[in-house]
Specification:
Elements: E1 10-15, E2 20-24, E3 27-28, H1 29-36, E4 44-49, E5 52-54, E6 59-60, E7 64-70, H2 74-95, E8 100-107, E9 111-117, H3 122-138, E10 142-148, H4 149-158, H5 162-168, E11 175-181, E12 184-186, E13 203-207, E14 210-214, E15 216-217, E16 220-224, H6 231-247, H7 252-261, H8 264-288, E17 295-299, H9 306-319, E18 323-328, H10 357-368, E19 373-379, E20 384-391, E21 397-402, E22 420-426, H11 441-457, H12 461-478, E23 488-491, H13 497-510, H14 518-529, H15 547-550
Parallel strand pairs: 1-7, 17-21, 17-22, 18-21, 22-23
Antiparallel strand pairs: 1-2, 3-6, 4-5, 4-7, 8-9, 9-14, 10-11, 11-12, 13-14, 15-16, 19-20
């Protein structure tokens, strides 16, 4: 007779460093991590359980493989920032229950820009920080619960959270997961740490019209980065906020309402008009500098729409009677056998040493003098520089160069500074899920790139996501440090774009299988895209900057300065 197998009452956890621990069924991953003393200098924030992102409160009911995520990991840092946001909002609710607090956007030195209504005084901000420190010292648990949509609606009505109520109108799942700290309960998309005791490194500082919540960066996870002032960047975000106010679209719920009313076409056209208006302002400024400025350098992080921006700016210049002429920095790469290698032994095409600066500057000077010059053409297949077209331009021409190093003074050491005009382009969205759940501009650019790479380059979403960390590393080294060198900044974000991108990118993300590391990132992106109502791409104008990514751009084959 076969005896029934007795259920096991213990489980084994195997860590990525080889440690194997055994404990009772139902033990949290957090307890296993504490016993393992895993990475004692870096506090665990979350973990991968058999490749799936889990909170440290995850109950182990079987043998599992665990990779601990800390502040040095992107997912660990996201958990930290999100939990820190909950701490901030809960502490503010305790001290100033009638104050409305919003977490607006991120800044590159490791900070979230926030505003309150009414604004906090310096004394109140100091009081708020003190309360947050007290909550951290108390090591209060952060609870997670699943509630019905009806209960969520009652919760948000009682709290006057109209932005979250708008989101609920298009919620398709019958429940909502919320987190609570003390008696404060709120919705945050994504995971949290188990308790406030994990949130030890932060600060609050007055900044512009509000304040910043500072946190460490992954590169130095145990310390805060020096504060940096970005007056131009903040001004651009403020301008975008004004645009959203004029459109009546302050959050994703409001955008969904526009779609359901059938008013999206108007929102699209007005958004595009804002873009065109700003481009016209830049062209008018360049017109006023005609005769002095000969070189326009355009830079910004990947998937900001720099290529389409430069073409549309060229058209605006033509309308002013100014003749533009475009050069590609890609054609001035050094030959592959001279190209520097990165720390992984791969060719580093993004470092400034990959550019033939001598040839680039000689070409610019020759063109400015009215000489005939032979343009190089870089062959990416052979890694060799070939001979391109022979060209010359007149004194009335303005040379337009778009590339990653456009704001770096080291790019053009031989060009007179007073002849150069620099433009920074980036997708600086302020359209968030609600006041407490921001959508990082980085995510918008990543989604743009996934769609563009699939449509024009034959890459899968997994390919793009796997390359993204190196791309971001290059941005922090070669783009962001120089952004305030710009004469003007251009915000390429469109308030409606994620509604258009959603139906295009979701099938690509869903192709990533569960056993791939990139699945974790795909799942995260899908989790906030679920809140957007979809929009058909056919509504997007043919010359829209968004067409650079979703396809069918009327400007795709337009070459600036060539007949």
């Amino acid at each position: 007779m076969i005896q029934p197998t007795k259920p096991r009452n213990t489980v084994q956890v195997k860590f990525s460093d080889g440690q194997i621990l055994e404990g009772p069924v139902g033990t949290t991953v957090e307890n296993f991590v504490k016993v393992a003393n895993f990475l004692p200098d870096l506090t665990a924030m979350a973990c991968l359980v058999d490749g799936q992102l889990r909170e440290l409160t995850y109950l182990v009911d079987r043998d599992i493989n665990v990779e601990v995520l800390t502040l040095a990991d992107s997912d660990g840092m996201r958990v930290y920032r999100r939990s820190l946001s909950l701490l901030l909002v809960a502490a503010a609710h305790q001290l100033f229950p009638k104050t409305t607090l919003s977490i607006d956007y991120g800044l590159n030195f490791g900070a979230l820009y926030c505003e309150s209504n009414p604004p906090f005084s310096k004394a109140e901000l100091k009081q708020l920080k003190t309360r947050m420190v007290e909550l951290v010292a108390a090591k209060l648990p952060i609870h997670k619960e699943r509630i019905s949509l009806k209960e969520a609606e009652s919760l948000f009505k009682a709290g006057g959270l109209d932005d979250k109520l708008r989101l609920l109108k298009t919620r398709r799942k019958p429940y909502l997961t919320i987190y609570s700290l003390g008696n404060y309960r709120d919705y945050f998309y994504g995971y949290m740490v188990p308790s406030t005791g994990y949130l030890k490194i932060f600060d609050l500082d007055p900044y512009s019209n509000g304040f910043v919540l500072r946190f460490p960066r992954r590169e130095k996870p145990l310390e805060l980065q020096p504060r940096v002032d970005y007056p131009q960047l903040v001004s651009v975000f403020d301008e975008y906020g004004e645009w959203m106010d004029r459109l009546g679209v302050r959050d994703v719920g409001a955008l969904n309402e526009v779609i359901h009313r059938g008013d999206l076409l108007e929102t699209i056209l007005v958004s595009e008009a804002f873009h065109e208006q700003r481009m016209a302002q830049i062209a008018t400024l360049l017109d006023s500098l005609q005769g002095r400025v000969r070189l326009v350098l355009i830079s910004g992080p990947t998937s900001s729409g720099k290529t389409t921006f430069s073409k549309r700016l060229a058209i605006q210049l033509l309308a002013h009677g100014i003749s533009p002429f475009a050069l590609s920095l890609d054609d001035f790469l050094v030959e592959r056998d001279k190209n520097p290698l990165d720390e992984y032994g791969d060719y580093d095409y993004e470092c400034i040493e990959a550019q033939d600066l001598e040839l680039f500057n000689q070409t610019l000077l020759g063109l400015m003098r009215g000489e005939e010059v032979v343009l190089p053409r870089y062959n990416f297949l052979t890694g060799k520089v070939e001979q391109g077209e022979t060209v010359s331009i007149s004194e009335e021409h303005i040379i337009i160069v778009e590339g990653i190093h456009g704001l770096n003074p080291a790019l053009v050491p031989y060009i007179p500074a007073n002849t150069i005009f620099r433009i920074y382009v980036s997708a600086l969205t302020q359209l968030n899920l609600d006041r407490h759940n921001r959508i990082p501009s980085t995510d918008v650019r990543l989604l743009r790139r996934i769609v563009r790479d699939a449509k024009h380059r034959g890459y899968t979403a997994r390919d793009t996501i796997s390359r993204w960390p190196k791309v971001r590393q290059g941005e922090y080294k070669w783009v962001f440090p120089y952004q305030e060198n710009a004469n003007v900044m251009y915000n390429s974000a469109l308030v409606y774009e994620l509604a258009v991108i959603k139906p295009l990118v979701e099938p690509l993300l869903l192709q990533i299988e569960h056993n791939n590391r990139e699945y974790v990132e795909a799942k995260r992106l899908l989790s906030f895209l679920q809140w957007f109502e979809p929009c058909e791409a056919k509504l997007v104008p043919a010359n829209s900057l968004l067409r650079e990514f979703i396809g069918k751009s009327a400007l795709r084959n337009y070459r600036v300065g060539f007949k």
